[in-house]
């Protein structure tokens, strides 16, 4: 099962690379067309915006899995193991609640987004904003899995170190500032 999960995240990372490359190519091509030929492609403007939305929301799930989101590590680092585990439990409960609300909000907004189409491509806006299902659901699943492992005592010291930022090298910490 772990191999399937790793493969899934590698596919997501490849998708993020493709979205970023596609967005960069479309924007660069449009700049060249505008300044070199006094024209442009409207579809590239629209699709680069949508690629950016998808890139951001898919990237949020990948970053959450890797403990790359912002945290108050200086506060958590002051606690012992038990305090850190309690902070991890509370953090994951808050994440589950917020992500579930985000998923539900995407569901409530779906009929409105389905009735609207993009001005240039005619793409249903449900495809653009429907990525909220992936982000909300993905974060809920990751946080639930972490919470279950925390409550059953199967959390590793490496995971606690990743949560508190103690697994980072000095170079990695410098990159974050």
Domains, number: 1
Structural class: mainly alpha
Terminus-to-terminus distance: 36 Å
Largest sheet, in brief, is:
none
**Residue-averaged pLDDT, rounded?**
89
**Which percent range fits the helix content?**
over 70%
What's the number of extended β-strand segments? Answer: 0
Function: Part of the tripartite ATP-independent periplasmic (TRAP) transport system.
Subcellular location: Cell inner membrane
Protein name: TRAP transporter small permease protein
Transmembrane segments: 7-27, 47-64, 85-106, 126-144
Give your account of this protein's structure:
- The two termini are 36 Å apart.
- The mean pLDDT is 89.
- 79% of the residues lie in helices and 0% in strands.
- By secondary structure, it is mainly α.
- The chain has helices at residues 2-37, 42-65, 73-76, 81-115, 125-129, 131-151, 157-164, 170-176.
- α1 packs antiparallel against α2.
- One of its GO terms (cellular component) is plasma membrane.
Give the tags.
8 helices; 177 residues
Question: SSE layout and pairings?
Answer:
Layout: H1 2-37, H2 42-65, H3 73-76, H4 81-115, H5 125-129, H6 131-151, H7 157-164, H8 170-176
Helix pairs in contact: 1-2, 2-6, 4-6
Compact overview of the structure:
The protein has one domain (2-176). The chain is built from eight helices and no strands. It has helices spanning 2-37, 42-65, 73-76, 81-115, 125-129, 131-151, 157-164, 170-176.
């Amino acid at each position: 099962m772990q191999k399937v999960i790793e493969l899934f995240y590698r596919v997501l990372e490849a998708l993020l690379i493709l979205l970023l490359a596609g967005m960069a190519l479309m924007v660069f091509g449009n700049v060249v067309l505008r300044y070199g030929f006094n024209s442009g492609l409207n579809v590239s403007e629209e699709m680069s915006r949508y690629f950016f939305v998808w890139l951001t929301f898919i990237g949020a799930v990948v970053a959450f899995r890797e403990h790359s989101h912002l945290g108050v590590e200086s506060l958590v680092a002051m606690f012992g193991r038990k305090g850190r585990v309690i902070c991890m439990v509370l953090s994951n409960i808050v994440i589950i609640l917020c992500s579930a609300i985000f998923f539900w909000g995407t569901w409530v907004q779906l009929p409105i987004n389905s009735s609207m189409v993009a001005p240039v491509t005619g793409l249903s806006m449900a495809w653009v904003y429907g990525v909220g299902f992936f982000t909300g659901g993905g974060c809920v699943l990751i946080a639930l899995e972490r919470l279950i492992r925390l409550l059953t005592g199967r959390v590793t010291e490496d995971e606690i170190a990743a949560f508190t930022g103690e697994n980072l090298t000095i170079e990695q910490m410098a990159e974050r500032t």
